[in-house]
Design goal:
By secondary structure, the chain is an alpha/beta fold. The chain contains twelve helices and eleven strands. It has two domains: about 180 residues, Aldehyde Dehydrogenase, Chain A, domain 1 (3-Layer(aba) Sandwich), CATH 3.40.605.10; about 140 residues, Aldehyde Dehydrogenase, Chain A, domain 2, CATH 3.40.309. It is about 40% helix and about 20% strand.
């Protein structure tokens, strides 16, 4: 690792420690950001705390250094003269934090378009980093027009296909990107759980993977492959869902689509059960609403990938990552199969 990356790593680690140390300290920048986010009704305070606590568990014990050193084992490009544009989603609190860390650890400058749905959490970390080292190139905005004519040569996007189409047109019209700009684009929609043998020990992690963030986000499980009919475990899932809501939500009301779909299923004989705020049902899987989760009988282990392709983020359980990582991925996880830090450093990610 060269001197520039060593210095940058130390600055980032110091900032993470200072920033997250204020997690439960009244009046700290992070506490204020959390409070404003909750007061504006952008996310439930329980989900904000969950996201921050997850960061505490994944970036304070040497994980950023381990991630960087693992990538550097395959060589790297010098990014010190480059600034990378990051267009962040806002469907989950702190959802873009991995990209922020990847850009900073790569040695590049960071230019972020923060989401209006999550304008304070990431910004509070970046302000902490600026305070510790003002020489690191950091820019943030809520308005993409701020970067008009900048001609960025590399950019990163995470979000929906529709969102990518809209933003690509805007970037082109405003001259934000260089004509030969390289992009890392992530547009997966949902994840699946593949459980070849059923055990009630799966239930707690399964409920977390479904109900956290109301089923939104590409890591949330929208399809469950299991070896038994839904009716065999419906009561256990319903009880666990109710307990989860008691711990994690002030408001446990479901979206209107849940009531409509439950009534339709009852009328046509499709097995379904209300679990927390979500409806789990059997039948042909067509993940189109985050509130509806599909229960499928076990098929070939490759079936989820073959059926859903790039729309599928991860298969948890027997066919992939551990189920408990669904909403708690390591900082070095590979969204859409790509390591963002490896991509930034010119390594095959």
């Amino acid at each position: 690792m060269n001197e520039h990356l060593e210095h940058r790593l130390q600055c980032v680690v110091n900032a993470l420690n200072v920033w997250l140390d204020g997690y439960q300290r009244p009046g700290s920048p992070l506490q204020r950001a959390m409070e404003k986010t909750a007061e504006q009704g952008l996310f439930p305070i329980q989900d904000i705390r969950f996201g921050v606590e997850h960061l505490c568990n994944t970036v304070l014990n040497g994980e950023p250094e381990s991630w960087l050193r693992a990538v550097l084992a395959d060589g790297f490009r010098d990014n010190r003269s480059e600034t990378v544009l990051c267009l962040h989603a806002g469907n989950l609190p702190l959802v873009g934090f991995q990209d922020v860390l990847a850009v900073l650890l790569s040695g590049a400058g960071y230019a972020g378009k923060l989401s209006r749905k999550d304008p304070w959490l990431i910004a509070s970390f970046l302000e902490c980093l600026r305070t510790l080292d003002a020489s690191i190139p950091i820019e943030t905005t809520l308005d993409l027009a701020t970067y008009e004519g900048r001609q960025f040569k590399r950019w990163m996007f995470a979000g929906s296909d529709d969102g990518l189409l809209r933003v690509s047109a805007a970037l082109q019209n405003m001259g934000v990107l260089h004509k030969d700009a390289q992009a890392l684009l992530r547009t997966a929609h949902f994840s699946a759980a593949y459980l070849s043998e059923w055990s009630d020990a799966h239930i707690e992690d399964l409920i977390e993977s479904i109900l956290r963030y109301d089923g939104k986000g590409c890591r949330s499980v929208a399809i469950i492959y299991a070896p038994i009919p839904l009716e065999k475990v419906a009561a256990s899932l319903q009880k666990a869902g109710a307990q989860w809501l008691e711990r994690n939500r002030f408001d446990g009301s479901s979206a209107p689509i849940v009531g409509f779909r439950a009534a339709y299923n009852a009328a046509v004989g499709i097995p379904s059960v209300l679990v927390g705020t979500q409806l789990i049902q059997e039948g042909v899987a067509s993940p189109d609403h985050p509130e509806i989760v599909y229960w499928q009988r076990i098929k070939d282990v490759h079936e989820p990938r073959l059926a859903y392709g790039k729309a599928l983020q991860e298969v948890y359980g027997d066919a992939g990552a551990p189920l408990h990582e669904a909403q708690r991925p390591p900082i070095s996880w590979r969204p859409d199969g790509s390591d963002p830090l490896a991509w930034l450093l010119g390594v095959n990610g």
